Records
---
Amino acid sequence: MALIYGNLKLDSGSAVIILIEYLVPCGAGSGNSAGDFSAGHTTPEIFFVEACDDGVDDVLAIDRVSTEVALTAKKDIPPSAITRPICGILGTVRLVAGMYLIVITRKKKVGDLLNHSIWKATDYDIISYKKTILHLTDTQLQDNKGFLSMINHVLSIDGLYFSTSYDLTHTLQRLSNTSPEFQEMSLLERADQRFVWNGHLLREFSAQPEIHKFAVPVIHGFIAIHSCSVNGKHFDWILISRRSCFRAGVRYYVRGIDSEGHAANFVETEQIVYCNGGKASFVQTRGSMPFFWSQRPNLKYKPKPQINNAVNHMDGFQRHFDSQIISYGKQVIINLVNQKGSEKPLEQTFSQMVDGLGNGMVRYFAFDFHKECSRMRWERLQILVDQVAEIQDEFGYFLVDSEGKVLMTQDGIFRSNCMDCLDRTNVVQSLLAHRSLQAQLQRLGVLHIGQRIEEQVQFEKIYKNAWADNANACAKQYAGTGALKTDFTRTGKRTQWGLVMDGWNSLIRYYKNNFSDGFRQDSIDLFLGNYSVEEVYSTSPLQIQKDWKFLALPIIMVVAFSMCIICLLMAGETWTETLAYVLFWGTASIGTATIILYNGKDFVDAPKLVQKEKMD
């Protein structure tokens, strides 16, 4: 099966990204399926991608000189072409050195969703169109290497999923509310663009309907599929998290919303139960607080968040919730940030914005997670669950019987958030999903009246581990490390070891957020098309000269601190002499560290491709 991720325009060439898979052939006559591929053929002038569907004579031809993509006949493939097994085209990418062919060389089957195979891409390769790069200058060579590493970084991020026959971008409820014409569309045409992470790469293929069968949308996030049994009744339990490609990025460089109302780190999470033909679905969302605020890294452990008071927050806020209401219906906001300290102004602003909205479709609940659950009192989360229980019953869930009749729809959604929309958020979402699942399994006849999910030890373990894995996946994609508080999600208890691991992950986050997130943000912006590499540029966008203090001050600090330690270990003839040396070098190291912290923003790894002002 070939997956076209699409065409990403970079500096002076284009690259074809190919997903190499060995898939079960799509069923004949499935109008919205993409054809499986059996081989790719390479000549000095053209890449040919051959479909393996019976009776299909068309071959996709990608011109290595003009970069044009078109269909041709199998007989046009010359005998001298080099053949390799492939099953999917990702797209084309242009880098400084010219054209590249990018292939995914390995995949892993996640499971079957409603009898459709779901896959995760796990390994990739990048092949140059050109035979040599000797025509590049030293600066161009360095830039080309940098852009390649960015594309490689995004492709290596765990969590790219696809199906050749099932639309992963839509919930069950959205799919049920469609016309027969929609069902016959290609996966590319019908996909929800919010969750198509290769949408920018697919832009040239979108304009050519005849090659849509070679294109498959790819989502980014997390999918777990488990075949379970309770009371002798077998069912599939599925958890899907879809990360939005709008306002995507990393933790401290992407906060709040943009002018279109797209929230940072927006994730749609769907829990599905499939039993004897019956289907149930419960959907939740998470996303950054939807007004204009930022939290730039500055070497401090927790930078102070800043609210941009120079803009009209209500315009973007209104756009955000207008789109949310259209997509999901009524909104219940669960804000889990602290109601004191640096997070307090954010909570107050969010509450005031909802009041100013004056919309009965949006309700607001504030729950100070850290205060309520302090001193390991995590059982107090039940207070929040009980507080919204009546609303959750009112919203319901989506339910279809074995004959395809819709018995119930979900009429509203919980939109949860904390500062990062990761750790606290995932804990609360898992509790709300657990409560919904209890009702779903009873309605589907899996649980007897009076039975509780908690009593089903084996399934409860599967459930908790999947939600913890979901937390880790979303956290790694946004913050760079696994999630915090997953010991509670996995076991239902907060442990001392969990606190230790949270501390370790927090230290790793600190390092990545300050010293590697600029590169991570650039990689995502490049991949999603937020940045387009110019054909010709006078100065390199990647080769930025650092200010003198960037190198001098850290060296001075390290030398001064080292001398202070040496003076302590190698005492002088008198204690006064030793004290004088220690005070001198100690003062020098502390003074230099103070200057570095004061100018912290100059020492962090900031994005180079998209100006920071444009990401506020």
---
Amino acid sequence: MSRSANGTKCSIFFLQLVLLACKCLGMPPAPPVTCKSGNSSCTVRSAYDPWPDRIPCNASAAFFPTSEDEIIRAVAYGGRNKLKMKVVTGFSHTIPKLVCPGSGDGTGIIISTRDYNKEIVVNRDEMTVTADSGVGLRELIEAAAASGFALAAAPYWEGLSLGGLLSTGSHGSSFWGRGGALHEYVVSVRLVVPASQRQGYARIVTLREGDPDLNAAKVSLGVLGVISKVTVRVEGQFKRNVTNVVKEDDDLEEEIMDFAGAHEFGDLTWYPYQRRVVYKMDDRASVAAEGNGVNDFIGFRSTSILVSAALRSTEKMLEKTKNSAGKCKEAKLILDSKLALANGLKNNDFIFTKYPVVGFQDKMQTSGSCYKSSSADLVNACPWDPRFRGLFFYETTAIFSLSKIKPFISDVKKLRDMDPESLCGIELYNGFLMRFIRGSTAYLGQPEDSVVIDFNYFRADSASNPRLNEDIWEEIEQIAFFKHGARPHWAKNRRIAFTGAAAKYPNIPKFLRVMKKYDPDGLFSSDWSDEILRGMKKVEKEEGCALEGLCICEEDRHCAPNQGYLCRPGKVYSDARVCRFHGDNFPSL
């Protein structure tokens, strides 16, 4: 390796060590809704910015209700004027354009739940918690804990609102009991929906257990109306006992299902280039168990803005020079460092000392310290905050039927064995994270017990720039969603992952009937939700459309022929069509 490559290795590894060791507060993320004049002429952004199609989402006005009465007035305004409406949370962490009203052309309106987050009521006798939909997950967890209760299930990232995480089916990991998704613990949902002129253009609907329409409201994509109140079941407080164990990946396909059944909250992370799997043995423990542990996941901590920008700059250089070997060296150093720090688990508020890490459920089940920041801190932020040119990535989440997980792993191993270094890109992030989710009664929930696989990877600053090993990641994406029929997570993924999604969720017809019942004019639907729920429309394929997953290439022009990327069949999945680099070191197949 050249001196410059060695220098790159040392510099990025040093920066990663700073990131891993830092316990910073950081500044809060930017608000997702900004307006030019008061609450008029507004733009909606994702926390990851920009949207998958890179086209801004505009609205004529934004409403920021603080009460249910104000939500009713906002919905009535939209209904009276026949305007498209969308609900946006104070966080906006969806990757698809689900929160964009209509076509985003500036004629629709936004209703933000940012300020609708005051009420949390714990019912000790019924063991439930009722909260405003804008209440943050962390606040909900802490309110339950203060009364001696715990949420049995929650997503790993806590920078979500109650209404937002339910709308998108966000989840943790568990095959036990009702499973790892909070929507399985919903007792009732209160909605504000459009209505007739006689009813004042808006009305309240309360759906309770036993009402089949609750199965639509529990995972709704925000197309039924505005979620106002949600009641969820809780249980007595308990602790978690966590140990991370690293193994070789030789028997991963055979071990995964046994592991899922053996540990209530377990997950595993696969690093295919390194042939290592981190098994998180995560189980329930008694409140009397010794330990006061905390989960402060490294990827969700505040990071120096300068460090995040430098990491991004270094990764861009590795991409530009097509230095797969450099990425692989960094990936090994980063994983070793994460393992040494238990990936953010701490035996107390400050440091990891040993396994197991034992702590109360409210301290162990979610994390996200970078979003709980002070505006007074001007040097630290979430590492992906788009204001500071830090990490910029896509996240693919594929949800597999149990019978499909083994052949998917086998196919990825075949790709790995052909060119091991081509898979190092995701190991700079979090590898293949594998979680477990129960089959759901929600119409847009998972129709059967499933394995969820997430992986993050580099996204270029410009939509016209291909990425290193573009073909490998496109092939893995197509292997997952087309060869093995994986279902997309509603809040993640590039556009092509939603191709055929309507046929993979068998209860979508039931959902559409409920949608028609509560919003007959489709005021809360949008171009994006219509495409997802009714079938992705055929796109007019443009030059370079495959680079960001807006299409699957059919011709070289859909890739980047001027940069040497041509449309070719997959290496393992011959039906795949991917953008492959053709150069001196990358002969065509």
---
Amino acid sequence: MGKKVKKEVEPPPKDVFDPLLVESKTAATVVLMLSSPEEEVLAKACDALYKFASKGDENKVTLFGLGAVEHLYKLISHEDPIVRRNAIMVLGIMASNHDVKKLLRELDVTNSLISQLAPEEDVVIHEFATLCLAHMAVEYTTKIQIFEQSGLEPLIRLLGSPDPDVKKNSLECIYLLVQDFQSHAAVRELNVIPPLLELLKSEYPVIQLLALKTLEEISKDGETRIILGENKGLDCLLQILETNEFSDLHVEALAVLGNCLEDAHTLQLIQQTGGLKKLLSFVGDSTVPDIQKNAAKAITRAAYDSENRKILKEEEVEKCLINLLEINNDGVKVAASEAISAMCENSASKRALGLQGIPQLVQLLSSDNEEVKEAAVTALANLTAASPSNARAAAEAEVIEPLVNTLNAQRDGAVANAAAALTNLASQEPFRVNIQSRGIMRALAGPLRSTNSQVQSKAAFAVAAFGCDADARTELRNAGGLGPLVELLHSKNKEVRRNACLAVMVCASDELTAVELCRLGSSMVSPVEEKQELSGQRSSLSKSSTGEKGLRKGKGKKEDEKMKEVAQIISKVQDEINLENSHWLPPPDFILLDYINDASRTILPLTTTRGQVVALAQFVADKMGGPIERDKLHDFSWELHVSEVEFELKSNVVPIGKVKKGTFYHRALLFKVIADRIGIRCSLVRGEYNRAWNEVELVEDSPQGIAGLLLPPKKYMVDLMFEPGFLIKQGSAEADQYKHI
């Protein structure tokens, strides 16, 4: 056997650099490494920066200052999956910083991040890409980018991810996106309801909470509520309320249910399954103010619909509301009072609430909280309107003195409704005398000087109600109230002018007051442009809460004679109007006046323009035949109804208030008329083939984290036919469908 010879090792090539392990103790050096062409260096550099950024906000600021964001942005599209993953991890962590988010928007990073949400990508990439998007989606512009770049679909798909962090980040991003109304229809079409309901079963409370908050936002849309019911979502929500261990989710679950209660069909479904009784019982047993407040608000929204009010009455919702008035929380008291105001539209509820709730409401008039006082006096005004029994109950509860004192309240709504409530009581002689003895005319002198048209109108009408008494007229004259009353004759608001004219005619029934009115520049007859309004005032007054009876009753025969003189003056004015206007005039529309008064009482107090628009849309639809299913529009025989009205009037000019089955243009016209009277800005657009619609401009809330940011208004069409109150974004497919046959 031969001798082994050691094989010689070939020397390494002279032109190859041996691997070198680079270590760095400074972030700046690692940021420079992000420009390396070597994938291993890039991956390790990103990993080091991720650990550095995770330690605190100061480190994120440091990396931002070193220009790391621009380098990382290029790397999130790198062909190497590890480099791409590590780069996205760093950006996901850093995106919580405001300056980083701003720069990422400028770099238009959303499209690159959305592309990383593909099913074949690593779950870590999904986690940090969605985290980055969630951080950025608090900004309005980023929401628009994600929506326009089709980011909703992959985000909804990732709600089914096996990783809880991916679910949480995707859900948070979706929640932020649906704050913008245009996303509601998009998520509905992408079938978001089933995965959201599935997430309610999650073992992670933060995921459950986000799912509920998202459901709360999108369930403001009627079609979404239908889908929620079809997927047994109502049962899921009620089950959460019945589970004590989910007590931290009860407020949000109740908020979703509150939205669902707005639909008569859904409310009836909940009632049939016993869910409504359970819900009211749950509210009664709860000791959490937010739950009680949200429940009362939900009842308020539901009560805007006449069918809903009937259902709520059947479940004796009045007991629940009256109990909430006694809760030691101002927010609950306000919400309960507002719900009582809404339920007053149902006559049976009005009687029940009057018998049991008036004493509690009277007590609230002494509250130090001005919002509580306003809500309580508004409820009292609604309860006593056209209800002698409730007026008696209020007087027996010693409401008169607190109401007179409320005429000096800080909030205009409280003052206006205090004047209205006192006018309601004045329809009964003993109460009118009692009110006059407490200096009502002196107290009204202040509201007459108000700059708020609602206060001016209610105060002037109250003067007309109490001015039939000689002592009351003297009191108003001595208090300096005639001057501001005369000034109201020049108001730009028709209702204010009309009520001021009536008050002037009533007060001018004695010589001293008439002389003073003339001295102040007034006359016994209203200006020419107001004569037509005065012609209908008597009928309007007779339908009001005061009624002519309150004006006619005075101190003995002498006052009756004076009121006859006032009636003669009105008749004389009418004769003069007929002479000056020999051409045909349309008949007064007293039903429309009632609509305007109702809207002023129930819709005007709402705190947001969006809420007013939605409530008015539902109000109009309710008066004109209710919502109509799209596929049954041809069965809605409005033409026959209008023809019958024309035959009844022997005229083809029909007062809008007489139309009880109205189509697009009837509803749009009524919406426009009432909106103009209560101060909601909108336009009336006429299309073809009996189509017309209203357009409104609404300003969205500022995004989270940017207080005081004024966003440009968005234009919406108001659905008055199919889903009354639904706001359709102008230019959308839904808008086009609403405009055309």
